[in-house]
Amino acid sequence: FRYDGGDKWTRVAHFPEMESVGGMVVYRGIEQGKQETAGQALNKAEDLPALQAVVTDHADTVAGHSAMVLLAEKQWEQGQQDASIETLRKFISSSQQHPAIPTARASLGVKLMYQGKTGESTKAFQEIADDPKARFLAPYALICLGDISKAAGDITKAEASYKRVKSEFSESSFSETAGK
Length: 180
Prior knowledge:
The protein has helices spanning 15-44, 48-57, 62-77, 81-94, 101-114, 118-130, 138-151, 155-168, 174-178, and strands at 2-5, 8-10. It is mainly α. The longest helix has 30 residues, at 15-44.
């Protein structure tokens, strides 16, 4: 029923429809509680085991996905380089709509570059440079691509990356870096 004022009520649904609306309200409440519980767990997680627990125990929540990025950084700090890279790859493949995807790609690219895997790091940086949602990181990615090309002896390709930063992202602080 819908209240229309005074003593007037209007029937808006019959039994099957009413039940489904009630079920939807309950479902949304449960989902919100699940997300909030996961967020609280993430706020408390400070070390590797706690972050791993958030990832495992709250895998289907936003906080569970966010914990993966933090877990990857902790793994790297503790010398678990391959595990860190695998965690980032898993996050990127399983969390396509998460706002931290560009940042995770940049982290992945840097870690791969550090390990000397320039082919894989080039792919990660190129995905950032080509992604309109990652525009804020594109200048950084293009400089990394330029540096990789320069290290490989491809000065023409390196200069093209640096010039793209200066022309498309002149407002970025990376534009000055690209000019050096």
